[in-house]
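2024-03-11 09:14:02 DEBUG pipeline.ingest accepted 1 chain
2024-03-11 09:14:02 DEBUG pipeline.ingest length=281
2024-03-11 09:14:03 DEBUG pipeline.predict start
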Amino acid sequence: RVSVAARPLSLLQPTSARQLPHCRRAASSAAPAAAASLEELLQQHRIAPSAPLAADALGRLPSRLAFLQGLGVPDAAVAAVVRRNPSVLSTEPQALSPGLDYLLSLGVADLGGSVRRAPDLLGCSVRRDLGLKVAILQSLGVRDIARYISRNPRLVSIDVERQMRPAVELLSSIPELEVGRVLEQLPTVGLNAEAIAPRIEYYRSLGVPRLGRFLSRHPPLLAYSLEANVQPKVAWLKEQGFGDVPTLLSRNPSLLSMPVEASLAPKLALLLGPLGRRDVA
């Protein structure tokens, strides 16, 4: 059984520990608004009047908006949060908070930014969902979970069986590949098996030695466009007379991150000019 117990909030920085209780107090103390001011609130936050809001939800609108604002959700983003997670308007802030409390315990500071990008964090289950995914990532070697979630809060919406498992199994099947390192640098693409599979197959077909080490040294290789980036550079290197391009790339994987005209070509000119060498590979 995976333990997802969070560290006590008292262990966090004082400002972070006080932030969420303050938001809940602000929400509970928000004064009821008259019908006219409710209409103004809807317009101010760009919530369409046709949105499926019951009468009691309309009455709670000021307190829910106060809760979102207290988290740091920008006014311009409130409508999008409500559209993507309508339960925000019908659920008490206390019930929306477990996932946020858990993020604070992990060290995630920007709750507003996380909620703006992943409204499903509001009301998510820690034990059955978010905490389980965090435990999986930690077991794979992801060390800075706070940074990972800050970069990819949509982790909460990823399906463990349909999305995480295929990507993790694919990465884990490659000898010497450091799965945790790859996921840390590619928090979104790294869990998309359909995106990384063609790149892995291309580098394998190219004959790059020690493929896992190659990808671990420069994880963005799994995100570069094959058609627009990787294949043209491989062709250019071959045109320049490099016979063993796979070995060259294995030793220098960051070459594929450099633009040809602005970086690779001048470096090659410098190398071939003063030094007169071609045995780079």
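2024-03-11 09:14:41 DEBUG pipeline.report Residues 108 and 146 are 5 Å apart (CA to CA).
2024-03-11 09:14:41 DEBUG pipeline.predict end
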